[in-house]
Specification:
Strand content: 15-25%
Strand order of the largest sheet: 4-5-7-6
Structural class: alpha+beta
CATH superfamily of one domain: Trafficking protein particle complex subunit 3
CATH topology of one domain: Muramoyl-pentapeptide Carboxypeptidase, domain 2
CATH class of one domain: Alpha Beta
Order of helices and strands: EEEHHHEEHEEHH
CATH architecture of one domain: 2-Layer Sandwich
Distance between the termini: 41 Å
Shape: globular
Number of helices: 6
């Protein structure tokens, strides 16, 4: 079986006559913004405003991915991730993939120009837009190459945050989550 593909043909449309950029099936208007300008805005904004911006970006990505996916119940995980990753790439967010750590789902975003504080709520909102239900996320790790974001229940996210705040590295925190240590 061939790997799922992402068809980027006509995914983003430039209308130079009218000075606009559109994406998706509902012709959502886009604005091309330098990553540095967005980073400066996020750095100067209150945390609530930065989160609102991140969630708005994620919702837009998730809504476009959802339109591509169609019937979520009938979609394979590979098809789901391919469409979500394609929309994230089109938006310039970076290269999105997933990792399974036992029962834990970790979204990996490589080469993103966005700060980790933006990527957590962006991932949550994208997944909420696709799945139609609340999602909790926390950033596990970040370096020059990748940011890892845990997707889990509210209680699991809170436990992992507490363990990491107490000195556990993220891999240990995920291991504790699986065996119920400190639950």
């Amino acid at each position: 079986m061939a790997a799922p593909t992402f068809d980027s043909a006509r995914a983003v449309r430039f209308d130079l006559v009218h000075g606009s950029v559109q994406a998706g099936t509902h012709d959502e208007r886009l604005l091309l913004v330098p990553a540095a300008a967005l980073s400066n805005l996020v750095a100067a904004a209150p945390p609530e405003a930065a989160e609102a911006l991140a969630r708005s970006l994620g919702t837009s990505i998730g809504t476009r991915a959802s339109a591509r996916i169609g019937d979520l119940a009938g979609a394979s995980i590979d098809w789901f991730v391919t469409q979500l990753a394609g929309e994230a790439a089109l938006g310039g967010v970076g290269v999105l993939s997933i990792e399974r750590w036992g029962r834990a789902l970790v979204v990996v975003i490589e080469r993103s120009p966005l700060k980790p504080a933006v990527l957590g709520p962006l991932v949550a909102a994208a997944l909420e837009a696709v799945g139609g239900r609340r999602v909790w996320c926390t950033v596990l790790s970040h370096d020059d190459q990748a940011t890892r974001v845990l997707v889990a229940s509210q209680q699991a996210v809170e436990r992992v945050r507490n363990w990491m705040a107490s000195g556990s590295v993220w891999g240990e925190a995920l291991a504790k989550l699986h065996v119920g240590v400190g639950a």
